[in-house]
Amino acid sequence: MSHTEKDRNWLSYILLLCTTTFWGGSFVLTKQLLDVASPVTIIFLRMVIASVVFSIITLVLYKDSCLMKGKDFWMMVAVAFFEPFLYFLCETYSIKYSDPTVVAILIATIPMFIMIMSYFTEHEKIGRINRIGTLIAFVGIFVMLIPSLGNVSFNGWGIVLGFGAVLSAVGYTYFINKLPEKYNSLVIITWQNLLGAIFFAPLFFFGQKSQALHSEITALMQPTNLTLLFILAIACSALAFMFYLHGIRHIGMTKTSIFTNLIPVATAILAFFIVGEEFPPVKILGIAIVIVGVFMVQKK
């Protein structure tokens, strides 16, 4: 491996840690906004904000290379359909019908399915230690959630939708990896948010009562809530996906996807500092196991 490649890999790891921090923090921030607005309203507005801000930046920096045509455009439509649209729908309603702990465990299987997919579609080499590391990271998530397992409720639809979110993440990773590298990450993520907003628009405008929607938007325009919404839009709906794409392009799908198992770790740590959530010893043990698993997957 050349010196330049090593530098790119280290940059990928740093950016992926930022990604897990942003996505982990999104749960904490979204939880606060859910007190005043529905999931559809929050998701749609954060994508609209991200689309507007990053479209302006993209037009300034990449005016001559921001358009997608033919096969590339339809590949981009598939990317946006799987995530954010299908993934957020499945995950949100899975949590509605089932216990969040069950959903979190299902979501933790995403790296396993991506590893299988990358092996068959991209012939990505996966060593024994990488496979064991993926399994260990999943066990770590399970250990972290042990305190919450006592009161879980299992619902068939919730589990089906949870797996729908998992398969959506796999589909997203597959299609975004197929986009030519001639497109800058900023261009791709701008299109992803723009198309995602279009997919969510009918649910936003026609799936909610006008009076409730007006009160939600009024509440979200409050300075504190608007700040949280902008953080979700810029950091979680745009920058995090850009960094994730950078990881896929430089260290591969399997090694990148395993970082999603650090999202509950980031959520637990941020929730402890921001909202004072409990941090029992078993959660610390689970976090340590997850980190060990993630390191093992990065081994050659």
Question: Tally of extended strands?
Answer: 0
Number of domains: 1
Shape: globular
Please compute the radius of gyration using only Cα atoms: 19 Å
Low-confidence residue ranges: none
H and E string: HHHHHHHHHHHHH
Taking the sheet with the most strands, its summary is: none
**Helix-residue proportion:** over 70%
The pLDDT mean sits at: 90
Distance between the termini: 12 Å
Number of helices: 13
Structural class: mainly alpha
Tell me what portion of residues adopts beta-strand conformation. under 5%
Describe this structure in words.
The chain has helices at 3-33, 39-61, 70-97, 100-107, 110-121, 128-144, 156-178, 185-206, 210-220, 223-251, 253-257, 263-274, 281-297. It is mostly helical. It has one domain (3-297). α1 packs across α12. The longest helix has 31 residues, at 3-33. The protein is globular and about 50 Å long. The termini are close together. The model has no long low-confidence stretch (mean pLDDT 90).
Concise structural overview:
The protein is an all-alpha fold and 300 residues long. The protein has helices at 3-33, 39-61, 70-97, 100-107, 110-121, 128-144, 156-178, 185-206, 210-220, 223-251, 253-257, 263-274, 281-297. The termini are close together.
Topology overview:
Blueprint: H1 3-33, H2 39-61, H3 70-97, H4 100-107, H5 110-121, H6 128-144, H7 156-178, H8 185-206, H9 210-220, H10 223-251, H11 253-257, H12 263-274, H13 281-297
